TrEMBL record:
It comes from the Eukaryota. InterPro entries: PMP3. The chain crosses the membrane at residues 35-56. The lineage of its organism: Eukaryota, Viridiplantae, Streptophyta, Embryophyta, Tracheophyta. Keywords: Membrane, Signal, Transmembrane, Transmembrane helix. This is Hydrophobic protein OSR8. Pfam families: Pmp3. The keyword DNA repair does not apply. Belongs to the UPF0057 (PMP3) family. Its main location: membrane.
Length: 74
C-alpha cells in the first residue's frame, strides 16, 4: 500500500505528464498506459483525468484477495 506522499508525487507527475504517472503506477506495457497515452495525444485534459483515476481509484489488488473475492469470480 503506497503512502500518501507517494500518491501525491504520482498525482503531481500525472498532471505534468499523464502517461508517466500511469507508467510509474502500473508499468509501461499495460493497457492503462496505452489508454492514457492515446487520451493524452487526443487531448491533454482527458489524459490527466484518466491518469488521476488510475492512480487514485484503480486498485485491483484489494479486490482479488482470497477473503474479498467477488462471488461470481472463478
Amino acid at each position: 500500500m503506497p503512502s500518501n506522499c507517494e500518491i501525491l508525487c504520482e498525482i503531481l507527475i500525472a498532471v505534468l505528464l499523464p502517461p508517466l504517472g500511469v507508467c510509474l503506477r502500473k508499468g509501461c506495457c499495460t493497457v492503462e498506459f496505452l489508454i492514457c497515452l492515446v487520451l493524452t495525444i487526443l487531448g491533454y485534459l482527458p489524459g490527466i483525468i484518466y491518469a488521476i483515476y488510475v492512480i487514485v481509484f484503480q486498485n485491483r489488488e484489494e479486490y482479488f484477495d482470497e477473503y474479498r473475492r467477488p462471488l461470481y469470480s472463478a
